[in-house]
Amino acid sequence: MSAQPPLLSSPLPHRPVSRILKAVVLVPLALAAGYVFLSLTLLSSHTDGFFAWRMSPVTATLLGAAYGGSCAMLALAACTDSWVKVRVAVFASSLFMLLMLGALLLGRGEMHLRGGALVGFLSAWIWLGVHLLAPLVGLVGLGAQWRIRGALPPRPPRLPWWVSAPMAVNGTALALAGAVLYVDPAPAARRWPWQAGQLDVRVIGAWCLVFGVALLLSRQEAELRRVRGGMAALVCTGGFGLLGLVRYADRVHWASPGAWLVVLVLCSLLGLGLSGVGISALLDPPEITPAPPSAPVVRPA
Fold it and tell me: The whole model's pTM is what?
C-alpha cells in the first residue's frame, strides 16, 4: 500500500499583532502619553512643581500636543489586529523613546534630579527610570512580534504624486530640522521665540525628527489606510499645538521669524493629517477580507 501523500499547505493568514506587543508596549505607551498630554495641557504653567524639569508654558503645551497625538495613534494601534497597520506607529514610538532617553541623559542638569519640589523631584527620577527601562521592554515586545508568522498583504499601487510629494517634502524637512535641533540645540535655544532651555529644544527636535521619519515611512507604505493612526496623530498635534499658541500668545515673541515657522509647521501637520484622513477612502482600494482556507487537496496516489 502506498504511503499517504502530503497535504498541500494552505496559505498563511495576514500577520497579526502580537498580544505581548500590545500588552507591554502599545497599551502602556498610550496610557502614559495620555497622562503626559493631560498634565502638560492642564498644568502647563506649573511644570516647576510637578514635572521632571521646568519649562515655559508655551513649550509645555506644545509638548503636550505632541503627546496627545501620540496617544491617539497608539490607542488606535492597540485596537488593530493587522501588523502592517501598526508597524509605522511601533517604529516611530520606539525611535522617540530612544531619542528621549538620549535627550534626558544629555540634559540631566536641567531636570529636578537634585531636589526642589517633592513632586517634581519624584517625577524627574520616574521619568528617567521609565525611559531607561523602555528600550528593554520594547525589545521584549518586538521579539514577541518577530515570532508571529503570517503573510504580508500585497502593496497597492503607488500613491499619486500630489499625495506623496507633500509627504516626502514635509517629512524630509521635519527630519532634517529635528536632527539639527537635537544634535546642537544651543544656538536655537538662544534665538527661540519664547523662553526655552537646551533640553526643551532637544525634545522638540526629537518630536520633529520622529514626525518626519513617520511621514517618510507612511509614504513608503503607499496605502493611507495603513497609517490612519499616524494621520490622527498629525491632526491632534497640529490642532492642539495651534490652540496652545493662541492660549499663550502673550508669551511668544511674534517679531521673531521662528514663531511663524512654528505656526507653519503646526499648520502643515494639521493639513497633512486632515488630507490623509479625508482622501484615504477615495484613493485606497477597498479592503478585502481573505476567504477562509478551503479544504486541503489530496493528490491521487
Answer: 0.87
